[in-house]
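Quarterly update from the structural biology core.
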Amino acid sequence: MLVRARAAVAGAAVLCAALVAYRIGDRGLWFDEGSTIGTVDRPLGDALWRIANWELNQSTYHLLVLGWLRIVDGDGALRALSAVFAVASVPLCFVLGRRLLGVRVALVATALLAIHPFVIEWGQQLRGYSLVLFLTLAATVLLVRAVEEPTPARIAAYAVVGVLAVYTQFFAVLVLAAHAASLGLLRPLPRRLIVGAGALGGVLLLPVAEFLVNREGDPLEWVEEPSTTQLNATAGELAGGGRLQLAVYGLVVAVGLVVLLRRAVDRTDPMAAWRAALPLLMLVVPPVATVLISVTAKPLVEARFLIVVIPGLVLVAAAAVDALPRVAGAAALGALVVVSVLGLWDWYDRPPFDEWREAVAAVGETAAPGDLILTDPLRAVHVVRHYVDAYDLEMAVGYPADMGALDPDQVYVLVRYEDEVPDDWYLRPEMDVWLADHYELVREQVFAGVLVRHLELRR
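Predicted structure, tokenized:
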């Protein structure tokens, strides 16, 4: 049985690899991916300083990209780093599921994770969300091992991997909170594990606490206040798409919650009860905590931040499939697979977020050496500079240090938008005055998410 199971897991990993590799380079890098490039594509000392002082969130991923960027080229190759962690999460899901709920549940959960549209989506982007998925899965596996045998090495390994997950994405701390809540259910309490992992993890996370306390500004000011519409949309994304995926996963997970809750409250076998409670808590604690914080303190509800709940989601769904009568279980699994395929189809067919690659290519058709590109917002300069370099355009990008010494014949203003094409841009006031005094608008081009304004020097 275990040999066949391992072959099935290998097949699921291959399938996941094929799905995440499919069209991985078709879309150009979008705004957030440009932020990753802007953090690491600079001299080593400068990059490390920015990671430590500005981008501590996702710092684990940034450190990996720092090296990856120096050995690969092209959008698809850059994103392959994320793809690796998405695929590597598949066998980890099996290991975790087998230890908690048995081989059959583990196989179903592994299959669901391998084709989950949200996992594939973020496995195809130059951001750290597939890495945090991988690390939280790894930390949970190590937690189970440490509970079974709390040796110093196992406790330390769990603490270190859990900390790495938090440095990859701060929301991973909510998974650690779910772990802690689960340990509170064990009798006797695993004090050695709690004290050891808590002490080591607490020390290693001190820089995160200092960063959050002293950071200037609010990097998440764009997150909207929670609403019913937003919460439904977020839940739909985590289910792999939208309303249909949410409805199907919701029904199956409701059954799984009942199944695992019954096992969790059965104290005849405390360890089995804990193993049933852990995936429940991994599914429930992060979103509930996020919503509570959003309502009482700071809006934080954003689907990608909660990618860490997907292991709990597929494990609970798999427990339902396994517990249902054979025909009903097969129907439930079939429905989950169908909605996942539909979600994948939608993701592959979705237009790009921001067509910076196409916008810069269009600029290159009319630009001359020495021309200038400006961006709104300013941080878009990173993704624009990436493509200016890729196309070997001899152009200046970003605000010049001395505008008086600059006299380009043409200026291109690339403006990011979301819903409607904007009527204006928002640059620095002195830059707006300089452009108004010396340049006139001659052409506009509209791309998905990007407006290109072409200005020429008045003669």
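Residues 232 and 243 are 8 Å apart (CA to CA).
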